[in-house]
Amino acid sequence: MLLKDEVEMLRRITLFSGLPPAKLKLLAFTSDRVMYSAGENLFHQGDIGDAAYVILSGKADVLVSTQTGQLKVAEVEQNSIVGEIAILCNTPRTATIQTTTPLEALRIRKDDFLKLLADFPEMAVEIMRVLADRLSQTTSELTEARSRAQRAEA
Amino acid sequence: MEPRLSRYIWTHTRKSQLWILLIVALSMIPYFMSFDLPKQIVNGPIQGQGFETPGATQLFLPISFSLPYFGEVNLFSGIELGRQGTLLALSLVFLLLVIINGLFKFYINTYKGRLGERLLRRIRFELVDRVLRFPPHHLKRVKPAEISTMIKDEVEPMGGFTGDAFVQPALLGGQALTALIFILIQSFWLGIIAFVIVAIQAIIIPRMRRRLLVLGRERQLTARELSGRVSEIVDGIGTIRGHDTSNYERADIAARLGRIFKIRYDLYQWKFLVKFLNNFLAQVTPFLFYSIGGYFALQGRLDIGQLVAVIGAYKDLPGPLKELIDWDQARQDVQVKYTQVVEQFSVEPLIDPKVQEVSVASPPVLSGALAAVNLTLADDGGAKLIEHVSFQVRPGETVAVTGGTGGGGEALAEALGRLAWPASGRIVVGEDDIHELPEAVIGRRISYASSEVYAFQGSLGDNLLYGLKHAPLTEVVYEGDKAAHRRWELLEAKLAGNPSLDLNSDWIDYGAAGATGPEDLFGKIRAVLDVVLLTNDISALAVRSTINSVEHEAFTQEIVEMRAALRRRLEAEKLSDLVVFFEPGSYNIEATVGENLLFGTVTDRARWEEALENHPFFKTVLKRAGLHETFYEMGLEIAENVVELFRDLPPDHPFFQQLTFMTSDEIPGYEALLQKVRGRPLEEVSEEDAIRIIRLCFGYIEPRHRFGLLTEELMQKIVESRREFSDGLPADLVGIIEHYQPNRYMASATILDNVLFGRIGHKHTDGSDKIRAIVRDLFEALGLYNKVLAFGLDFDVGAGGKRLTAGQRQKLNLARSLIRLSDFYIINQPLLALDQRTQDQITRNVFAFLHDEKRDPAIVWVLSNPALSELFDRVVHFENGRLVHEETVEAPSKDSDYKELAS
């Protein structure tokens, strides 16, 4: 796939929709285009985060290791961004991402990603929206889980 | 150390000083004889004294003297010589005396020089020896650069002074005294005048010079501080730039230089003032002679002959006197320097030399428990790090220390590792204080590792084995010249008070690593590297290195043979698309256009650039192959793309790291170039511009840059023109390119590139990790892995190990302790730079390793992750410097862990 096709693809992702085309091209050029087959890990929980991934095509599971084994907490698919938390907070990866189908992604290195956020506040806002979405989802799931636990106790 | 330099010199060089004094005294004889001779030559043969009659002869060299009670003794009655003969003979004697004087001077100077150098060697050694015995708290306070300046520069003048320390005053003092006595004999009053002036000089000048000494001391201190600051700047450059404090540093340095300037300028002013005064006093004496002596002469109380003799004799006085004063100045100067240095190095309590004595024998096993008895540790400010802790580790026991930062566990470990000394209380092994036992026992039977690592500049292997180099274990047998040189080394070392330990001996204590000799040491190295998970790092370093293909021919052959094995392996694992191999007949899509065209790599980048621009060869071949125009178009496209992408970015933008075609400062140039050539056919573009554009193509890789510039047809053309490049290469370009040949090792490429003989595809993110794992596996399968690791062990870690990552350094440091067979391992959060998962894994590995092979050493481990404490026999918990909690880990959980480890 050529650079200009990638730019077309990036333009369709909400996160980057506010960026001018020239910058999208630069982003595509400086990032790595990576491909995975089904069952591979994009990254592993506990690793030190060095990049974020924009999924261009394919699907993957978000897995968290618990005492009882791997627990699937979510699924990600085309146009979503994963792995940005470890970059933003400088913490180890909070989850493992495992592909379920062949997957194509754009790997954006940590420094480049942070620089982009600094250069384009629109993107930062979009990232915030993604994070807030996830937080509200997590909260509602937590509430649900708690009430289930309470019911079980009763 | 001896506080007075002169006494220090006298103690260590007494015999030599006396000898040189004697030689100097002897040398005076020919010296004075040569004074008298010119007069004899002029008066005798030249002016004809004693040759009044033609044909007169004189006795040459009669040797006779008279002894009391014995009368005249005539040893040699001399030779009868004519006027010309005498002239020749006397001139020859003069020449002889010149030679003898020269030889004396030569001997005296070399002797004095050698004396000085020996003393310098002695002082320097003594100082470094003291550094090795400094107490830990003192080492925290001093700056390394200041210490090294003192040892390197500040003691240097002492060497120069040593030779003159006693000879000079004796000689010059003698000369001055002779002249003074002569004047006194001629005329008492004039003698007194001369004496008074000399006394004034001798009293006033040294006094004035005291100020000079004060200034000199200040100069020395400020210069030393400057060197300390400069080294701080170099060490802390990251912090300085990171915090934008470079201008603060500039201000600080400027202020320091200003102070140094002021001191030095003051020094000059004083120096020349003193000089002026000194000269004035020396000149004023003849004035007194002329006026007062003349007055006496006019009155008739002094005859003119005497006056002339006095004035003549006085000529010989200021010279030696001035030199004597200069000598005194030098003496005080070096004395000040010496005192300064000695003060800095007189630290109490120094470690007793007995504690560090060389011991070749292997030390006894420590059978007693390692215990802290009522131990209190304090930091530099006196704050208590731990207070009244009593704690015991029995041999074979494993103890986890928890409590986190500030708890006190780390401080305890440091104390057990002798990095910190107790403020009160003791640390004992059995009955003995560990600070009184010889280091030959403690330093070998107790191993300490923490996250504070020091790696010495040298190879990785040397650093790993550093902890085994306790004593020279083999006697090296030298032969021929080398034996003579060794004898000389030993003699000189003895004369300068240096130890005679042989650095060429094998210092590695194989037994201490559980090996029997150099042959099976590698097995041990491999084992500890595996334990700390450093093996992969080292093999990665090794495969990225280039090796001397002539020296290791057999190995390179094996590497070449591996290429086929790698292909088979990749095919078997269905990973063939991981690597795109170099095939003479096809285009390698993952390699640059340049590599594809040359089918080889450039060995000399600078020469290549030069040739590309100036050598007609490339242009003609490109033209002949029909690529000239295509490449120009392609280069133009690349330039357009790059300029579009990067035009607006500031030059230090991190994105520039992805740019391989040009550097950030070349972009404006290309932008202008594009405007100039855009829309014009190639014929109208100047040759120079065309080359600038064409050269951009050489770095292009389609899957990486994705500009869509390579067509099937073009790739075909490039492959076809390969032969032209390889066969037609002119003689002056030979060696610039190393061609890819499937059955030959490429000396300029890394080991990995040689194994791959291709390029790793861009499609897989972890392609290079995967391939490295496969290659590692292959090495292991073919029995080459240890050889590869051996190349990795040759890797130069750089100053302070800076060429390794922090994690690698800490792993190396842990491995360095583990390779030693000790009774106690004190391990103090050794791997803080690594992520928790790896830390845990290494901790478990270390446990399994240390309790392997029927060994049962005690372990004290300051844990950063308390979850691991289940591995241990006992857990002690520290809070605020106190041991608050101590419990034995229950056996079952430990058992299950051991089962887990065993499995």
UniProtKB/TrEMBL annotation, chain A:
Keyword set, alphabetical order: Plasmid
PANTHER family per the UniProt record, alphabetical: CAMP-DEPENDENT PROTEIN KINASE REGULATORY CHAIN, CAMP-DEPENDENT PROTEIN KINASE TYPE I REGULATORY SUBUNIT-RELATED
Pfam families named in the record: cNMP_binding
Origin superkingdom: Bacteria
InterPro entries: cAMP-dep_PK_reg_su-like, cNMP-bd_CS, cNMP-bd_dom, cNMP-bd_dom_sf, RmlC-like_jellyroll
Gene3D superfamilies the record matches: Jelly Rolls
Organism: Sinorhizobium americanum
Name of the protein: Cyclic nucleotide-binding protein
Domain Cyclic nucleotide-binding: 15-134
A Gene Ontology cellular-component term: cytosol
